[in-house]
Design a protein that fits this description.
The chain is an alpha+beta fold. The protein folds into 2 domains: 116 residues, GOLD domain (Jelly Rolls, Sandwich), CATH 2.60.120; 45 residues. It has a 5-stranded mixed sheet with strand order 1-3-9-6-7, with no helix packed on it. The termini are far apart. This is Cargo transport protein EMP24, putative. Keywords: Developmental protein, Membrane, Signal, Transmembrane, Transmembrane helix.
């Protein structure tokens, strides 16, 4: 199954102030490979982070291994990055050729478990940040006193800090979702195990009653 991430939100804009970023949560069925495409151009930094936040055994809430296979391919189809059975990873790739980069989540090693994967795709291009200032006319005094360079540096730092904050928030959200799923699975397993123990105790008690009564009847 392939998807094309060509929405306006994630298409690299030449004069966009914010970096191109997209996040999504998907369910990868057992035996399937889900692929996505991200357009990038030279001098871009393509960053992909993913995390397996849940694993469902068929339609039952039984916790399985939180792992997935991951591949990143160049526009020419060359494999650039490959992960095997990892629960999470963060990759940064310096783009050298323009085109559509394909990245895939492979769950073919699993026969019954549906994997829920959260991923975040980010395109960083510092040259685009410099181009956005070309549309503005600044006074000679501002340029002469190097004030403009200081403003650019300050804004770039603020942008970097905001991106880091958002990135950490997304990470915490994914971790919280994974922990909540694990707790729900543990709660379900405890309930099932408790019911099983109660049934076993009732059966053992009934057998003991029958055995004791049979002893008295023989006497």
């Amino acid at each position: 199954v392939c998807y094309v991430l060509f929405l306006p939100l994630i298409i690299a804009q030449k004069k966009s102030f914010d970096g191109v970023e997209s996040e999504m949560t998907i369910n990868v069925r057992p035996g399937f490979v889900d692929c996505f495409y991200q357009r990038a151009k030279p001098q871009d930094i393509l960053e992909i982070e993913y995390q397996v936040i849940d694993s469902i055994f068929s339609d039952m809430n039984v916790n399985q291994e939180l792992d997935i296979n991951f591949q990143l391919f160049s526009p020419q189809g060359k494999e650039l990055i490959s992960d095997y059975k990892k629960s999470d990873a963060n990759h940064r790739h310096e783009v050298k050729e323009a085109g559509d980069y394909k990245f895939c989540f492979d769950n073919r090693h699993s026969l019954l478990s549906v994997k829920t994967v959260y991923f975040d795709v980010y395109i960083d291009n510092e040259s685009a940040d410099d181009d956005q200032w070309d549309d503005y006319d600044f006074s000679p005094d501002l340029l002469f006193n190097d004030t403009l360079d200081q403003i650019k540096t300050s804004i770039a730092k603020v942008k970097e800090y905001l991106n880091e904050v958002k990135h950490h928030q997304d990470q915490l959200k994914a971790i919280e979702s994974r922990d909540r799923n694990l707790q729900e699975h543990n709660f379900t397993r405890v309930n099932h195990f408790s019911i099983l123990i109660i049934i076993v105790m009732m059966v053992v008690g009934a057998v003991q009653v029958v055995l004791v009564r049979s002893l008295f009847e023989e006497n």
